[in-house]
Amino acid sequence: MTVVMNMLFFVVLSSAYITVQQRAILRKLRLVNSNLSCKLGNRNLSVLFWNQYWKANTEVLHVCHTIKGHSRYWAPFLSIIFPYYVFVQVQQSFATIIIINF
């Protein structure tokens, strides 16, 4: 059971890390969009912001690749562990109903 809890902790921890990455990239994209809308007339700045957008887009693709890898790695484990937890919850709920009715 300890191994299962450690694995679940790692799943949650890696999901939180991916969320932090996504929020940082979203912040960068919003900054680039706001800068582009304010300073659209200047060509040199437009090229600079286009390069920043291109870099942020590359980071998005990297995060997507990371998510795909995590999904492929954790799919068998999560497919086994989640039905187990659902079974335990249903069993405990059923036992509670039975005990209350007696």
Q: Which features would summarize this protein structure in a list?
A:
about 0% strand; elongated; single chain; about 100 residues; about 95% helix; mainly alpha
Q: In short, what is this structure?
A:
With about 100 residues, the protein is mainly alpha-helical.
Mean pLDDT score: 83
**Per DSSP, what share of the residues sits in E-state strands of 2 or more residues?**
under 5%
Shape: elongated
Q: Are there runs of 5+ residues with pLDDT below 50, and where?
A: none
Largest beta-sheet characterization = none
Count of beta strands: 0
Structural class: mainly alpha
> What is the element string, with H for helices and E for strands?
HH
Which percent bin holds the helix content?
over 70%
Number of helices: 2
Distance between the termini: 32 Å
Rg for CA atoms: 23 Å
Number of domains: 1
How would you describe what is shown here?
The chain is mainly alpha-helical and 102 residues long. It has one domain (2-101). 94% of the residues lie in helices and 0% in strands. It has helices at 2-38, 43-101. Helix 1 (2-38) runs antiparallel to helix 2 (43-101).
Helix-strand blueprint:
Layout: H1 2-38, H2 43-101
